[in-house]
Amino acid sequence: SQQGEEDPQALSIQEGENATMNCSYKTSINNLQWYRQNSGRGLVHLILIRSNEREKHSGRLRVTLDTSKKSSSLLITASRAADTASYFCARGNNAGNMLTFGGGTRLMVKP
Amino acid sequence: ETGVTQTPRHLVMGMTNKKSLKCEQHLGHNAMYWYKQSAKKPLELMFVYNFKEQTENNSVPSRFSPECPNSSHLFLHLHTLQPEDSALYLCASSQGGGDETQYFGPGTRLLVL
Predict the structure, then answer these.
(1) Which of A35, A36, A98 should be substituted to probe chain B, the one whose Cβ sees the most B Cβ atoms within 10 Å?
(2) Structure confidence by residue, pLDDT tens digits, B45-83
(3) Is the Cβ–Cβ distance between A22 and A72 less than 8 Å?
(4) Of the candidates B53, B55, B26, B33, which has an alpha carbon nearest to the alpha carbon of residue A42?
(5) Interface contact flag, A99 B103, Cβ < 8 Å
(6) Distance between CA A40 and CA B111 in Å, rounded?
(7) Structure confidence at residue B103 (pLDDT)
(8) How many beta carbons lie within 10 A of that of residue B105, not counting itself?
(9) pLDDT tens-place string over residues B2-21
(10) pLDDT band at B86 (very low <50, low <70, confident <90, very high)
(11) Statement: residue A36 has pLDDT above 80
(12) Which of A30, A31, A54, B40 has the fewest Cβ atoms within 10 angstroms?
């Protein structure tokens, strides 16, 4: 299976703190993406990092990719209550036409 | 709004019913996807269509039947479902050229009684 592990499965922090979520995978990838899902809704794309990139930023988001360890992390800085959601990493296959999602991290940011 | 719409948003059906889920994308994309999201399970890819051709069927039971009449529309026909098929069904689309950011619809919450 290409499905990897995301940890932690659940994370609870106070507003203003940083949140770090990790994703590991087993097979080679074309890219790795992070998505956010509010309860019972569709997923929203946050950021894509290609296999030849090591770090990427978007606003308060910072994503790193270590292909030697087959792992990625998503850092949300200065978290807000509105960041409460589930966060998923998705591995893009080498053909670039399919994504395999992990089980997600449920983040709760307390005001 | 992501540019991908799904109808209905909620559906309750009996095991002998026939129903269809509809997805429409307004992004000019060439690839469309159906996913199933059950409680406490990772998102499961069901079907992939590229340029209206089915390119992936992830061992989905035949009681789920997809249809893609054009690049903008995708249907999922449901027939004699089981209670364990109750889930959130998500449609997504992507450009289809290799940069595979996917854009998701809001999903259809399906309950099979």
Answers:
(1) A98
(2) 999 998 888 888 788 999 999 999 999 999 999 999 999
(3) yes
(4) B33
(5) no
(6) 13
(7) 94
(8) 27
(9) 799 999 999 999 988 899 99
(10) very high
(11) yes
(12) B40
Residue A94 CA neighbour count, 13 Å, CB half: 2
CA-based torsion, B71, B75, B108, B56: positive or negative:
negative
Q: How many residues does chain A have?
A: 111
DSSP string, B74-112: EEEEEES--GGG-EEEEEEEE-SSS----EE---EEEEE
Residues on chain B touching A40 (C-beta within 8 angstroms): 88, 107, 109
Q: Please, which residues 8-47 of chain A have a Cβ atom closer than 8 Å to chain B?
A: 30-31, 33, 35, 40-45
In this prediction, residue A5 has a pLDDT band, given cuts at 50, 70 and 90, of: confident
Which residues, other chains included, contact A80 with Cβ-Cβ below 8 Å and sequence gap of 6+?
A15, A109
Q: Which residue of B has its CA nearest to A91?
A: B100
Does the CA dihedral B102-B103-B106-B112 come out positive or negative? negative
Say yes or no: B86 contacts chain A, CB-CB below 8 A: no
B109 close contact with A: CB closer than 8 A: yes
Cβ–Cβ contact B83 with A under 8 A = no
Q: CA A66 from chain center: how many Å?
A: 13
Question: A10: which 2 tokens?
Answer: 């659940």
Mean pLDDT to the nearest integer, A79-106: 89
